[in-house]
Structure formats: structure tokens, C-alpha cells
TrEMBL record:
<keyword id="KW-0143">Chaperone</keyword>
<protein>
    <recommendedName>
        <fullName>Heme chaperone HemW</fullName>
    </recommendedName>
</protein>
<keyword id="KW-0411">Iron-sulfur</keyword>
<keyword id="KW-0963">Cytoplasm</keyword>
<dbReference type="InterPro" id="IPR004559">
    <property type="entry name" value="HemW-like"/>
</dbReference>
<keyword id="KW-0349">Heme</keyword>
<dbReference type="GO" id="GO:0051539">
    <property type="term" value="F:4 iron, 4 sulfur cluster binding"/>
</dbReference>
<dbReference type="InterPro" id="IPR010723">
    <property type="entry name" value="HemN_C"/>
</dbReference>
<dbReference type="InterPro" id="IPR058240">
    <property type="entry name" value="rSAM_sf"/>
</dbReference>
<keyword id="KW-0408">Iron</keyword>
<dbReference type="Pfam" id="PF04055">
    <property type="entry name" value="Radical_SAM"/>
</dbReference>
<dbReference type="GO" id="GO:0004109">
    <property type="term" value="F:coproporphyrinogen oxidase activity"/>
</dbReference>
<dbReference type="InterPro" id="IPR007197">
    <property type="entry name" value="rSAM"/>
</dbReference>
<dbReference type="GO" id="GO:0006779">
    <property type="term" value="P:porphyrin-containing compound biosynthetic process"/>
</dbReference>
<keyword id="KW-0479">Metal-binding</keyword>
<dbReference type="InterPro" id="IPR006638">
    <property type="entry name" value="Elp3/MiaA/NifB-like_rSAM"/>
</dbReference>
<dbReference type="GO" id="GO:0046872">
    <property type="term" value="F:metal ion binding"/>
</dbReference>
Amino acid sequence: MRKDEISQPLETLYFGGGTPSILSKSELESIFETIEKYYSTQHLREVTLEANPDDLDQEKLHFLKSTPINRFSIGIQSFFEEDLRLMNRAHNAKEAESSIKMVQDFGFENITIDLIYGSTTTTNEMWIKNLQKAIDLNIPHISSYALTVEEKTALDHQIKKGMTKPIDEERQSEQFQLLVDTLTANHFIQYEISNFGKQNYFSLHNSNYWKGIPYLGIGPSAHSYNGKSRAWNIANNSKYIQSIQQNSLPQEIELLNEVEQFNEMIMIGLRTIYGIDLNRINSEFSQPLIDSFYLEINHLLNENLIEKRKNKIILKPEAKFFADGIASRLFYVD
């Protein structure tokens, strides 16, 4: 149904959004066969599978080795039991470490793990040990995020009832700086605010997102983008399936106006080492947006929060924790 939405050869595939590691051998084979039937895959460079540690075993990995999958994203979150209990994870600390070693034993080198900082159970000492464990395991890519409390979750309930301490933003800031300092000292490059990769191990798929390259999202809740509009599929599984069976795409489409395209370029550019491209700002947008942008850029330069490098605007290292707030200053508001 969607074979004509992407015309260029595929460069990356990403199985994510839930727990795709529970897919069976026949299900994954069917997906790959369908992809190869409708798309050009001769330039495919990166195929990532998200996995929970408790879903990976010898039998599963033996099969996955025979597929085009060449990169794993493992949802570790922490190597400490108290953190994992707070986050209600199904795996334990032992499984977290053993799953990585098992994947490596099967010859997969390109591995990324998620680590969460700033939780109420994570001391600065524990956080440094978490990072050191990942370094000792020779993980070439780490995505790391501050713990956020979503409404109506078990953690939200515990905090409101006084059963768990609230999030300490000062501690989150300290642990973010420990993250940057520790990984930078161990040859990781912070190529996006929350993503750190060794040379040649940046996520190609996510980098394409950040560079504004079109992508196609298949499945419930999946998002797509073609440069001018964004589409997202409905989240309800049964309604999604029913709609597909009736040969109808269950999605909403949002056309991005000039201001939305401008603000998105600002937000993404500031979060990455690729920066905000001044050539694109000057050529793709109308004068009121350009004038507003340069007025605030001058203020940020004077405050030593950004720098201009090769006609790109890039955040100063000490300003990265405040990227979202700085981006909001550059947004154009109708």
C-alpha cells in the first residue's frame, strides 16, 4: 500500500517502537521478504533491532545472525537492581550484562544501549559505575536520557503518595555533566544531546532523522516525514489492523507551515553536532523569520551560549543541558 512513498533506495531500517525482539523467525522473515519485494535494498547499510535483555537467548540470536540485522539497541536502563525496580523493568542487573555479552559472542559489534540518569535511586557514584560498566563492556554507542515522570504511571502515583522522592533536577544536571565528561574522556563523541558514539558508530538511522531526510513509518503509532508533511498511524492495534484489512491507511497527516518547518530546523539543529545551517536559514525562509532569528542569535553569542563555526550555529558544550530552553528563544512565534 505504501510502496510509492519512498522512491530512493533504502539506507536504514529500524525495528523499534515496542519490543520487536518478540517477533518469531517466520514473522521477521516475512517482513524482510516484503521489504525486498517492494524496495531497493542494495544500499542498505544499517538494520537495527530494539530488544529487551530478557528477550535475547542463544536460539533467538542464532536465527537473527542469518537476517540482515547488523545493529542491536538493548534497553538496559541501568546495571543496578534498585534502579530497574523503580523503572518497573522485567529484566534484572545480571540479565542486563549477560545479554550484551551474548550478543557480542554471536559476532554483533554494533550495539547501542539505553541508560537512564537522574532517577531517585541513582546516586552520582552509581551513575559513574553504570557508565564505567558500559565502557568496560566495549559498547560503541550509548543513548542516555534523564528520567521523566509521566502522568498516571506507577512512579507518578508513588511520588504523589510520598512513597518515592520527587525528581531532583539539580542531581539530573550533575549526572548529565558526569555523562558528558566520562564518555568524552573515553573517545565517545556527543553527536546529539542524548547520543554518544565512537567514531564510525553513530546511528545512521537517527542521524537521517536529524538531517531532515524523508522516512516511512510502518505499524501502529509509527510516524512518517517527507520534508513538508508529517503523518502518524493510529495507535490502537485492532483498529489499525482492521483498517489495513479494508485497504485503508489509518493515519493523520499534518502539513508543516513555514514557521513549523523553521522551528523544527532550529530544535533539531541545536541538539546535534551538525548545528543550524545558516545557508538554509537564509535561503528557505521569509525575511521576518530571518530577522527574528539573527536578533536572538546575537544575544546568545553575547551570552557565550552558542558559537558560529563554518556557517553553522552550534551550542557551546556548557550550554547543552539547556538546549531546549535555548531553542525556544530562537523559535518564531506568530
